[in-house]
Amino acid sequence: MPELPEVETAKNGITPPLLGKAIQSITINRPNLRIPFPKNMKQSLEGQKCINLRRRGKYIWIDFENNLTLVIHLGMSGSLTIDKTTSSPHDHVVFTIQDGTTITYNDPRRFGMMFFVETGKEHNHKAFLNMGPEPLSNDLNAIYLIQKLINKKSPIKTALLDQSIVAGIGNIYACEALYRANISPLRPSNDITEEEATELIIYIRDILNEAIISGGSSLRDHRQADGTLGYFQHTFDVYDREGQTCKITGDKIIRITQSGRSTFYCPEKQM
């Protein structure tokens, strides 16, 4: 599933051709993804100018001049591509901009979604009502994180994936941040000290920013808006490196399953 860096990369990629321009037409090739498309999507957006693009957690928010915000979630395999040169049966929505540029939403597994919210009232929607702070903002700090973890006995890796605690972090970047912070993914959340929380937040931000600069991680489906691959996967320390050597200790990286997700870590480094 695209995580914060991949979604930020997608949002940044479609901003230059879309911002300040009107939607000329929308082609919708199926009735739904995970949920039905808004019934009035074509009528509501055709002819409307895009005035802003934002990201919240793993969602893209596109604001239009008619006070509607189109929310896009990429699901497991969604992507947004500018001026796609080849067609696919998985091209579910095509936005044509006033200058003829196209932005194609492709999603082979169809776990993505699109829906409307009223601009300025996004946080009242059920998808965002209980969402935690952005990890790249000052709202995420050690005091906040400790308060959220103090009564949780679940593993710290599981807690980091909880979008009500921190928004946008997924499996890849939780594994990588815990590795850099020398924290075992098996540690109980309420065992994390304030000093460890402070360091963990620093590493979370470092990794997310590095991944954004690298265009995200392309493991299966993620591509940037121009169709090129991200390349942060080439710098992974532990994720998807089961059986390989830890760059610090020389020991083997192992894989375990937590809450149905694969966790990769170095037991010798992460205590």
Short summary of the structure?
With 271 residues, the chain is an alpha+beta fold. The protein has 2 domains: 4-129, MutM-like, N-terminal (N-terminal domain of MutM-like DNA repair proteins); 142-265, Helicase, Ruva Protein, domain 3.
Which series of helices and strands comes N to C?
A: HEHEEEEEEEHHHHEE
Q: What percentage of the residues does DSSP assign to strands (E)?
A: 15-25%
- Quickly count the domains: 2
Number of strands: 10
**Structure class:** alpha+beta
Sketch the major β-sheet.
4 strands, antiparallel
Number of helices: 6
Relative helix content:
10-25%
Radius of gyration: 20 Å
Essential attributes:
globular; four-stranded antiparallel beta sheet; alpha+beta; 2 domains; 6 helices; 271 residues; Helicase, Ruva Protein, domain 3; 10 strands
Describe this structure in words.
- The protein has 271 residues and is an alpha+beta fold.
- It folds into 2 domains: 4-129, N-terminal domain of MutM-like DNA repair proteins, CATH 3.20.190.10; 142-265, Helicase, Ruva Protein, domain 3 (Orthogonal Bundle).
- Helix content is 23%, strand content 21%.
- The chain contains 6 helices and 10 strands, in the order H-E-H-E-E-E-E-E-E-E-H-H-H-H-E-E.
- The strands form 3 sheets. It has a 4-stranded antiparallel sheet with strand order 1-6-7-5. A 4-stranded antiparallel sheet has the order 2-3-4-8. A two-stranded antiparallel ribbon has the order 9-10.
- Strand 3 and strand 4 (68-73) form a beta hairpin.
- Helix 1 (4-18) packs across helix 6.
- The radius of gyration is 20 Å and the shape is globular.
- The chain starts with a helix and ends in a 6-residue tail after the last strand.
- The mean pLDDT is 95.
